[in-house]
Amino acid sequence: MRVLIPNPLRSYTANAAAVDALGKTLGDLTRDLDRHYPGMRFRIVDEQGQIRPHIKFFVNGAPARSLAEPLADADEVMIVCALSGG
Amino acid sequence: MAKTKTPRGRGATLLIATRKGLWQLHSEATRRTWRLAGPQFLGHIVHHCVADIRDRKTMLAAARTGHLGPTIFRSSDRGRTWHEAKQPPAFREGSGRVVDHTFWLTPGHASTPGVWYAGTSPQGLFRSEDGGATWRGVDGFNDHPQRKAWCGGDQDATPDGPKLHSVLIDPRDPKHMYIGMSSGGVFESNDGGADWRPLNHGVRADFLPNPDPEYGHDPHCVRMHPALPDRLYQQNHCGIYRLDRPAERWQDIGATMPKSVGAIGFPMVLHARDPDTLWVFPMDGSSVWPRVSPGGKPAVYRSVNGGKSWQRHATGLPRKQAWITVKRQAMTADANDPVGVYFGSTSGEVWGSRDEGRTWKCLAAHLPHVYAVEVA
């Protein structure tokens, strides 16, 4: 499925704004992303398997609050870095 | 104490870790002129950047961003290129604990090349055996049955999060270590981190009901003298202290500071060769703890007799209306002769002295909030 990558994570994807990845759940998807882009998962998911505080996932435009969120091959996942500047 | 002469003037390189990235300051041999290089990791919160004195090539930087979790970057060419750690410090899955950021980095003993230690917020101790590429928790500390009691809860945290810092390795014995924790106190291990015990007697903790508890203190910065490893100094939330092992009771050496200045600050800096010479940067610890130069008149205080007395040094620093804050990792010294002393401020200035702290010059300004200054 297509995954939209926010600017702060594009150092992992050679600046690609969108990549393809696999997974039956959002958690699976983050592990697949980490296989292709090592280190990316830990920046967005902590060691206890929780989405980090300023990271949000959207599946087909709808917010997904859990890594258990089921995914289908045709879904589009967007990773968003929430407002956290200053 | 006899002082040993070493060759003069190689110049110095300073690693300036800031809330918005990493810079380097390079001097020529006399240390009169400096060149600012950077930024690297622009926008990253760089808590600490440290060079490996064992190989003079490796550097590690502890970084995160406002959004992204904590990681470690590694360089094997003195900071020209960087690669991210494969497995940054992280607590064991299922422990319920999450590393917010890596706060402190220390190269291991000279006999263990590639070994590094990291202290995190909240308090965790981690070890790498491959030059910082992969990290594992030091179970003897992270899983110690007393750890929760030593560290306290969220109410005991310092404003920027509870921290494990000041990881000190005895140059005579890689298994002999000290750590500092804010809060928690100073702790010692004699078995490479398998077990720990508090080492805080004599240190005030006037924010606790028992002013002389076994643990729960707030050491801001603890240093071990490299040439006399039985000599420890600490700048504490409640004063300045010295401990000469095997003694167990810290001596209050801040009591001789001028009453109008006080003995509160964050950094503690030692002379590379003379165990009796040290520098502190006092900050206002009165009322609501402003933590700025007392009266807006910044000064470095130096002792050349192990803390028996102090001299005020402010030549070159602003004379008034300068409300400077220097964090615990943001002051350091080089090993030249005479020693150079440096500090960075939260207002983005870096100051240097090439005459052991007597006179000062602004080396860089307009940088972001400085978190750490280390000599490479």
In DSSP terms (H or I, runs of 4 or more residues), the helix count of chain B works out at 2
**Main β-sheet of chain B: number of strands, strand sense, barrel status?**
4 strands, antiparallel
Helix content of chain A: 10-25%
State the assembly state of the protein chains.
Answer: heterodimer
Distance between the termini of chain B: 27 Å
Strand residues, percent of chain B: 35-45%
Task: State the separation between the terminal residues of chain A, measured CA to CA.
Answer: 34 Å
> What is the topology, as strand order, of the major beta sheet of chain B?
3-2-1-28
Mean pLDDT of chain B: 95
SSE sequence of chain B, one letter per element: EEEEEEEEEEEHHEEEEEEEEEEEEEEEEE
What does this structure look like?
The complex is a heterodimer of chains A (about 90) and B (about 375). Chain A is about 20% helix and about 25% strand. Chain A has about 90 residues and is α+β, with helices and mostly antiparallel strands. A five-stranded mixed β-sheet of chain A has the order 2-1-5-3-4, with no helix packed on it. With about 375 residues, chain B is an all-beta fold. Chain B contains two helices and 28 strands. The relative contact order of chain B is 0.13. Residues about 1-5 of chain B have low confidence and may be disordered. The interface between A and B is medium-sized, with 21 and 20 residues.
